[in-house]
Amino acid sequence: MQARTRTAKVPASELALRQRFAALVRGLAGARAGDVTAIHQTRVATRRLREALPLVTSGGAGRKLERTIRRLTRALGPVRELDVAVQTLDELEQTDVPRAAVTCLRQLITSERQTLHAEAVKAIDHSDLERVRRKVMARVAAADAETPRAHLVRAQRRAARRAERLRAAIDNAAGIYLPDRLHEVRIAAKKLRYAIEMVRPGTPVARTGRAVTRSLRSTSGQLAALKRAQDLLGRMHDLEVLIARTRAVQGTAPAPNLKLSGDLDQLVRRLEMECRLLHGHYMATRSQLVEICDRVEKHAVRAA
Predict the structure, then answer these.
(1) pLDDT tens-digit profile of 205-250?
(2) If DSSP codes are grouped into helix, strand and coil, which group holds residue 163?
(3) What pTM was estimated for this model as a whole?
(4) How far is CA 54 from CA 62, 82, 157, 198, 219, in A?
(5) From CA 144, how far away is CA 12, in angstroms rounded?
(6) What is the pLDDT of residues 164-186, one digit of tens each?
(7) Domain segments of the chain: what residues?
(8) What CA–CA distance (Å, rounded) separates 223 from 110?
(9) Rounded distance, CA 175 to CA 31, Å?
């Protein structure tokens, strides 16, 4: 057994899960302290881990483990959303948007963030990640006899299902600017990206647009294209959230004075204009996303 430990390679699924648990644990202390970057990284780690868990767990026990991680994702999500809103306001403050509108929204969002972060801290304190990690790794050890080929086939099939959902979301969004449907495209693209990472754990993501354009046949090219679409649609969603918050402020009682209401209107128009521009960029990338879906599904068919 000792010789085997020294020479045998760590199964891809085990390595990926260890990496994802480590990333999650690394960010928890900073997330608990309220660090903006740590909250974002921790939330991403929970999503990556949730995409990896079904490859080694199943049944009621597997779903229970996944729910534990999902609770963290959902607790950190609203805090992250407000952090992005504040970052967007910081950017807008450097433009021609009235400063009074930015200041008003920032004060309200900062206050709400304190409340939501306190709730997230409770969720972090109640999560027993070490217990979850032990149970997951025990299942990985039980499946240690599984061949790397079997892991690859299972991961490819899961990625193919994610690709099918992304294609459906793209079709449902069509070419009309419908924020809710575009948000579904973003979520589906993100899940496909994380699923592809499990097909080829450790694959580097191409950093340049040129690398993506050169070929979507490589895993790194697909990951980079999905990341770019995810960021674009994510920005669009963040702006829509800020628009909704701005409208809510205008409708509160007591209502803001006419000057402030006019400033908030100007802010909304600025945000809406950027959303339309981003939608145009998204429309130009749709065919690339569909091509990725085609390739992922074909790979799964060949593997089967």
Answers:
(1) 444 444 444 456 788 899 999 999 999 999 999 999 999 999 998 8
(2) helix
(3) 0.84
(4) 7, 30, 12, 11, 21
(5) 11
(6) 999 999 999 999 999 999 999 99
(7) 1-145, 147-304
(8) 34
(9) 38
